[in-house]
Structure formats: C-alpha cells, structure tokens
Design brief:
186 residues, alpha+beta, four-stranded antiparallel sheet, three-stranded mixed sheet, globular
Length: 186
C-alpha cells in the first residue's frame, strides 16, 4: 500500500536562525553530514539556549530530508545525538509512529529509486529544490510495522557494513602511502 507522505508524517521546514560559534544546541547544516547522510563532521554552528530555539528542537524519531542543494539524503534523529535544530535547508518530517517507523521512513527516503523520483520532483532549475506541496503529495510504500522494522534493521546493518568498508579502505590507503613513502625515502 502507498500513502502520501503528508498522510504518514507532519512536514515542516527547519527554521532560519542566526547561529553562534558555540552553544549548547547544534544547528544542523548539510556540510556536517558525510556522503552516506550521517553526521560525521563536528557541529560548527549553535543556538545558545532553549528560549532561542523555541519549539524547533528535534524530537526523537524526527527525520531530516534535504530540501535543496547538490546532496539528497534523509537522516533519523535520536536523542543521544544531543539537542539539535535542523537549519532551513532541511525538511523536518515528524512521522505518525502508529503508521510509520522513523527508521523505515529514513531508509525509504534514502533508497536509490526514491532519490531518483525526488530528484525528478525537485528538478527543473539549476539548483535542486523540492517544494513542500510536492513532497506532501509524494507517495511512499507503507508496510506493516513489523516489516518496516525489519527493513529498517536491514538498512542499518547495510550502513554499518558500508562504514566498515570505507574505514578499511582509508586504512589500506594510509598503509599503501606509508609503504611508498618509506621506499622513496630509503
């Protein structure tokens, strides 16, 4: 069964706020995420306090989706990441958890075929940009919760494996560079 995204999640934009160089609340930007759409680089923009954040603090299970730019990915926020607010470049999807598992939603949005469909949806100009109304009407598959959780777990294991392989590749490159350097300098 498929549903419009607006039927399974509340869709909002992250706010545009004046950020600071330090603070307690991370103000998330696309550049802080790696090519797999996972936070990798330290937060370099912050909001000082909850008063300034208003009701924009992310809740456990919110899913961020890039709304414009050259990179398209979704990421599921967890409380252990620490207090954070998504910048205005992100859609903040608040899944109706009785209908859709947040990890499943992120996995579906990161699925290559979904990304292609979203690219078409957001295409047409020099800079990729998805309109909120188009995203609201975008149809996604909605399976039973047990199947959603199973697919989300598979997606998580796949991401873990890719991270391990990438780390191994970096280590192999460092090892190779070290050997070449040693040979050339002996």
């Amino acid at each position: 069964m498929t549903n419009k995204l607006s039927e399974v999640a509340l869709i909002q934009f992250g706010p545009y706020l004046q950020s600071k160089d330090s603070g307690r609340i991370k103000y998330l930007q696309v550049r802080q995420f790696n090519d797999l759409g996972e936070p990798e680089y330290p937060a370099d923009e912050f909001i000082l306090n909850e008063d300034e954040a208003g009701n924009n603090l992310l809740n456990d299970g919110d899913v961020l989706l890039v709304s414009k730019g050259n990179r398209l990915f979704a990421w599921r926020y967890r409380l252990n990441f620490g207090p954070a607010i998504a910048s205005s470049i992100f859609f903040v999807l608040k899944p109706h958890k009785d209908l859709i598992d947040p990890d499943f939603l992120a996995a579906v949005l990161n699925y290559s075929q979904t990304k292609k469909a979203l690219q078409v949806l957001g295409g047409g100009s020099n800079i990729f940009s998805i309109r909120k109304s188009e995203l609201a009407d975008f149809k996604i598959p909605v399976l039973s919760i047990s199947k959603q959780k199973a697919l989300a777990k598979l997606s998580g294991l796949h991401s873990d494996e890719i991270n391990i392989v990438q780390k191994l590749m970096r280590e192999k490159q460092n090892l190779f560079t070290g050997y070449v350097s040693k040979i050339l300098n002996d």
